[in-house]
Amino acid sequence: MTETSTKKLQINHLLGMENVSEEDITLMLDTGMSFREVLERPIKKVPTLNGKTIVNLFFETSTRTRIAFELAERRLSADVVNFAASGSSVSKGETFKDTVQNIEAMKIDMIVVRHSSSGVPKFLTEISNATIINAGDGAHEHPTQALLDMMTLREKFGTLKNLRVCIIGDISHSRVALSNIYGLKTMGAIVSICGPKTMIPKHIEKLGVKVFHHIEDVIPNVDALNVLRIQRERLSANLFPSNEEYNKYFGITKKRLEKSTKPITILHPGPINRDVEISSDVADSEHSLILHQVLNGVAVRMGILFLLGTKTKTN
Predict the structure, then answer these.
(1) Could you give the CA distance from residue 164 to residue 187 in angstroms, rounded to a whole number?
(2) Which of 223, 282, 284 is nearest to 251 (CA)?
(3) CATH T-level topology, domain 143-291
(4) Is the pTM higher than 0.90?
(5) Where in the chain are the domains?
(6) Which of 22, 200, 208, 275 is 20 to 30 Å from 130 by CA-CA measure?
(7) pLDDT of 7-44, one tens digit each?
């Protein structure tokens, strides 16, 4: 670790990116980069959280986020307990509150939670003494995804200040979009969004972003595109006619990107719907940082777990 390990976060939990200070974001990104070095070693493990018990409380299915958290926890030598709602007492009628308090009675230190309902991480801080990390709550926020996205962009460009980033896709249903908007704006980036009118929330301009409905208006004026997955499982209505129609008007293709006078960096939170929101030749191109995001996802979560797991709470 570097001198960042002597600094302390102002926050006691990571519930979202809204109202998280530039200082805290910078510390989490810097600490994540320090742990990147650990991941490059032959032995990718440090004793930092030895003796700490962390529960991964996932009420939604997940692959990347759950594995990245579990790997980060084990790399830090924590004791890890994985909980899935399927097959648990929740499926037998036990309330969420009773489930959490029964788990906490086993003397745990931290809870990483993913839930389909917005606000669950905040509720956990009210019924639990554990440190809470939000791994995605409904269509609200996904702060660790935003942090790994910012870490990837900062690594590429050196700074986030004045970086021109456009988030493309279903903004209304995306917790990734909201966390990225909050975080990037705090760090001084110039943020825009683009998507069908049916997928753009009303009054989102109040967050300080510019709204586009035509991808051709975006591409000549950005440094990076963060391309969101079309989340069919979250759509309560057909907000666009078909995948082919979406790709026709909003898909990120090589032909579209060639209209820019300079290469555009591509991010995607995954999993990718190839040839829907992004073409294969773009996803696999030299300008795509999608696999770098995956590696940084482990590193930045190690940084967050370290900073919160070794912090003495002030309230």
Answers:
(1) 12
(2) 282
(3) Rossmann fold (3.40.50)
(4) yes
(5) 3-142+294-309, 143-291
(6) 22
(7) 899 999 999 999 999 999 999 999 999 999 999 999 99
